[in-house]
């Protein structure tokens, strides 16, 4: 592959790496490591796999399976994520008190790797805003977060500058900035085809604009995680120097073990961490932990008149049986759709609903048809589901895959009504069992097409 690398990229990397260039060039010709991160809310124990040392629930696989044909993947039991990017967990745990109530923003969030990681780190009293500016990618993000099962998440589809109205609102902001993608060359050949020196310069300017747009929304002493999946200094060290020159900040350090192979960068009080594929079992990645020291007027989200509709008492009498700790949830109804989220965030979600482009907020729960409830798929994925209230049909692999393909399923006439379809006792979705057939309620837009 080194022969096909863009000449300007190869020249820059030779200068940057010196005697390590040959090792680097050989490493990017080898297959990418395969890694996954488990959902702590949906597993009781993890298999005997090789752990990724800088994350608690990330593991390497010896080979790449067909994830599409694993029902547990669709159930949100794990997320397929590149190992280097999981370092964000280590960085945040060392610098953020996750026992506190936090407002967290994942600004460039699709497809959801870092958002699902953040969702597993924050406590139930914290709020995660997961944003993606491209609408089609925001839908993929929403799908992955619904599968993860947390109800303290809002997915938005906004430009970074829209968050300037939220002065000092966020305790943590993660900016995994759109970049030239050099760290993905061996994993994604298209990234190599799209690379150019002009694009590197364009990405660097765009990254600065994104940080400038979002900066007012970070509170004093809040943490900004700035990361890219690229190697060059223009998008990494030079952008950090720009942040230092523009703002009153402190660059934070974390302990790393020499066996990890992570390179710590310290230049003129700027600190960062670089991942090279010849040093670590992962892709190219760069990350810095930045504390905002300058003061910021804080936006107070005030209680406003509740404009949300609410379900009828008859409907609520049924719903409270479906949800664990239902008394802690706010149920709202828009047309025929009911959803819930933690009561503690009613004002915040009302604010985001009014001022931002919401994709999801909390958990879609049910559709109401003449006061009869049809459960929503997101409820089956939810960690708040009271699964004991529903009948269950635990399917073997072949039947589970038919369900995920939204194929017709046979019925023996038992367990009539809405049932949870499960695989290895993990929910996959809903089915309505009739006397002569099973109506497969798996979302058509999520169905798998691979045979």
TrEMBL record:
Molecular function as annotated in GO: RNA binding; RNA methyltransferase activity
Domain SAM-dependent MTase RsmB/NOP-type: 9-293
Species whose genome carries this gene: Pseudochryseolinea flava
InterPro entries referenced in this protein's UniProt entry, alphabetically: Methyltr_RsmF_N, MeTrfase_RsmB-F_NOP2_cat, MeTrfase_RsmB-F_NOP2_dom, Nol1_Nop2_Fmu_2, RCMT, SAM-dependent_MTases_sf
Binding, S-adenosyl-L-methionine: 108-114, 132, 159, 176
Family membership noted in the UniProt record: Belongs to the class I-like SAM-binding methyltransferase superfamily. RsmB/NOP family.
Record's keyword terms, sorted: Cytoplasm, Methyltransferase, RNA-binding, S-adenosyl-L-methionine, Transferase
The keyword Iron is annotated on this UniProt entry: no
One Pfam family this sequence matches: Methyltr_RsmB-F
Active site, UniProt feature: 229 (nucleophile)
Transferase listed as a keyword: yes
Ranges in a coiled coil: none
GO BP: RNA methylation
Gene3D superfamilies attached to this UniProt entry: 2.30.130.60, Sun protein, domain 3, Vaccinia Virus protein VP39
Protein name: rRNA methyltransferase
């Amino acid at each position: 592959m080194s022969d096909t690398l863009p000449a300007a990229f190869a020249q820059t990397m030779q200068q940057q790496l010196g005697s390590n260039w040959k090792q680097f060039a050989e490493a990017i010709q080898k297959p990418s490591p395969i890694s996954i991160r488990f959902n702590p809310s949906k597993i009781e124990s993890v298999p005997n796999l090789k752990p990724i040392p800088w994350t608690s629930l990330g593991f390497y696989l010896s080979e790449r399976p067909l994830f599409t044909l694993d029902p547990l993947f669709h159930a949100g039991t794990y997320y397929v994520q590149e190992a280097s990017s999981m370092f964000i967990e280590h960085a945040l745990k060392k610098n953020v008190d996750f026992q506190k109530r936090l407002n967290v923003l994942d600004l460039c969030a699709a497809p959801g790797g870092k958002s699902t990681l953040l969702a597993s780190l924050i406590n139930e009293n914290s709020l995660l805003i997961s944003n993606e500016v491209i609408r089609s990618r925001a839908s993929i993000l929403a799908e992955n977060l619904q599968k993860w099962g947390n109800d303290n998440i809002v997915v938005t589809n906004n430009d970074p500058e829209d968050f300037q109205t939220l002065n000092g609102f966020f305790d943590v902001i993660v900016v995994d900035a759109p970049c030239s993608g050099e760290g993905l060359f061996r994993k994604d050949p298209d990234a190599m085809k799209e690379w150019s020196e002009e694009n590197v310069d364009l990405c660097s300017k765009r990254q600065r604009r994104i940080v400038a747009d979002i900066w007012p929304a970070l509170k004093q002493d809040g943490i900004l995680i700035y990361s890219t999946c690229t190697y060059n200094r223009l998008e990494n060290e030079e952008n950090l120097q720009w942040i230092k020159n523009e703002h009153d900040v402190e660059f934070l350090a974390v302990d790393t073990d020499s066996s990890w192979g992570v390179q710590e960068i310290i230049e003129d009080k700027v600190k960062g961490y670089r991942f090279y594929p010849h040093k670590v079992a992962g892709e190219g990645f760069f990350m810095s932990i930045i504390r905002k020291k300058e003061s910021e007027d804080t936006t107070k989200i005030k209680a406003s008149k509740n404009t949300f509709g609410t379900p009828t008492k008859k409907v609520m009498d049924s719903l409270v049986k479906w949800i664990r700790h239902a008394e802690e949830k706010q149920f709202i109804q828009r047309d025929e759709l009911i959803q819930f989220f933690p009561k503690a965030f009613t004002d915040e979600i009302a604010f985001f609903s009014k001022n931002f482009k919401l994709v999801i907020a909390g958990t879609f729960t049910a559709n109401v048809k003449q006061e009869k409830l049809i459960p929503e798929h997101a409820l089956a994925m939810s960690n708040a589901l009271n699964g004991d209230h529903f009948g269950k049909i635990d399917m073997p692999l072949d039947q589970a895959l038919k369900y995920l393909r939204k194929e017709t399923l046979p019925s023996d006439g038992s367990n009539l009504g809405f049932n949870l379809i499960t695989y290895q006792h993990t929910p996959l979705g809903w089915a309505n069992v009739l006397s002569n057939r099973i109506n497969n309620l798996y979302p058509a837009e999520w169905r798998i097409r691979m045979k």
